[in-house]
Design brief:
With about 375 residues, this protein is α+β, with helices and mostly antiparallel strands. It has six helices and 25 strands.
Length: about 375
């Protein structure tokens, strides 16, 4: 029963917050189309490991031969280099919009084979490709690994965090810029992070009030088209002006989020309850085993036996029903559930039952 308090405390905290509308900047509600990051991926080799590499994996051996050949070193046929001090890795990075050649990117390096640790390793020069197969950056540098792994001679080992992955701050250099289409076209499109036709209309109206009638029009529930001037400088000024405009968004849709893995339940302030009576009880079955040892009589040539002895007890906790009034708010819901001491599992069961009864005016989302 005590474990219910932390889960419901979050709901009570949210219930105590004011439900009045608040202003938000347009830039916090979405972003302009085309201004997105692009994922880059590459394959490389980390060297300089202290015996924690891939050992004898075929693809690690091939990677080492390829790295040696790029440096002008040709290994004799049939030679298999020992790769215990090196590891094959996957490199990932994000290319931000407007990134120009020569700028630096942070990269993440992860082992894909049997390497136990990348601590102390150095990534050899490796290309990073986009989804179109083009090379957009080159990566190289010394890894910073937050994890630690130590093996002892008797087989015992200690592992802290993840030693088989690391990062290199500024470890990649941009070689090719991505054409965002920013300076072309007659319009700019602003996309809301969460589609809502009312918010799309409010954003368009606010832009028209600031710039001029007809400057913006909502295309759908998530996109607003804005007339754009010619030239990059003029567009940057317009976008900066639009992003810093304040609007008052509409109240979000009523929603209850249930995390089935952690038992966390979050109810937003728009949730309302229709009149409903709720009664929730618990049934506990307790089984105790106390076997008894039966000893044979002296000189009877009998055998010691164990006689089962079970005790079953059933306890049912009865909780009086409570009434949810019409239009009950989040605060009313939390107070009622706290009054009966509902745990996280009980709370989910009650909310699901209210939804099935048609009394919960909200979307129930289970993740």
């Amino acid at each position: 029963m005590r474990r219910a308090i932390p889960h419901l405390f979050l709901c009570a905290l949210l219930a105590s917050l004011p439900l009045s509308a608040h202003a938000a900047r347009i830039k916090d509600m979405g972003q302009f189309q085309g201004l997105r990051v692009n994922q880059l991926t590459g394959y490389g080799v980390v060297v300089g490991l202290n015996g924690t590499g891939d050992d004898s994996l075929d693809y690690a051996t091939q990677a080492m031969k390829g790295a040696a050949s790029r440096l002008g070193l040709t290994l004799p046929n049939g030679t298999t280099p020992a790769v215990k001090n090196s590891a094959a890795v996957i490199i990932t990075a994000e290319l931000p919009p407007f990134a120009k050649p020569g700028q630096k990117l942070d990269i993440t390096v992860s082992a894909i084979g049997k390497a136990k640790s990348l601590r102390g390793g150095t990534l050899l020069l490796a290309p990073l490709q986009g989804a179109d197969g083009q090379v957009y950056a080159m990566a190289q540098g010394n890894l910073v690994v937050g994890g630690l792994g130590i093996d002892a001679a008797d087989g015992s080992k200690v592992t802290v965090n993840v030693p088989s992955a690391g990062r290199i701050d500024g470890g990649a250099t941009v070689e090719r810029a991505v054409d965002t289409g920013f300076a072309s076209g007659d319009t700019l499109t602003f996309n809301l992070a969460e589609q809502d036709v009312s918010n799309a209309r409010l954003v368009a109206d606010r832009i028209n009030a600031e710039i001029g009638a007809g400057a913006a029009r909502p295309l759908d529930g998530a996109s607003i088209a804005i007339g754009a001037p010619v030239g990059g400088e003029a567009r940057v000024r317009l976008m900066s002006r639009i992003e810093n405009l304040d609007i008052t968004p509409v109240e979000p849709a009523a929603r209850v989020i249930v995390n089935a893995r952690t038992g966390t339940v979050v109810i937003n302030g728009a949730v309302r309850i229709s009149p409903a009576a709720v009664s929730h009880g618990k049934l506990t079955v307790k089984v105790e085993e106390d076997p008894r040892v039966i000893q044979p009589a002296p000189f009877s040539r009998g055998q010691t036996a164990i006689e089962p002895n079970s005790a079953i007890a059933v306890e049912e906790e009865r909780t009086p029903a409570f009434l949810m009034p019409r239009g009950a708010s989040l605060a009313d819901i939390v107070k009622a559930l706290n009054r009966i001491g509902a745990s996280a599992g009980d709370l989910v069961a009650i909310l699901e039952a209210l939804k099935q009864a048609g009394a919960l005016q909200a979307e129930l989302v289970i993740i």
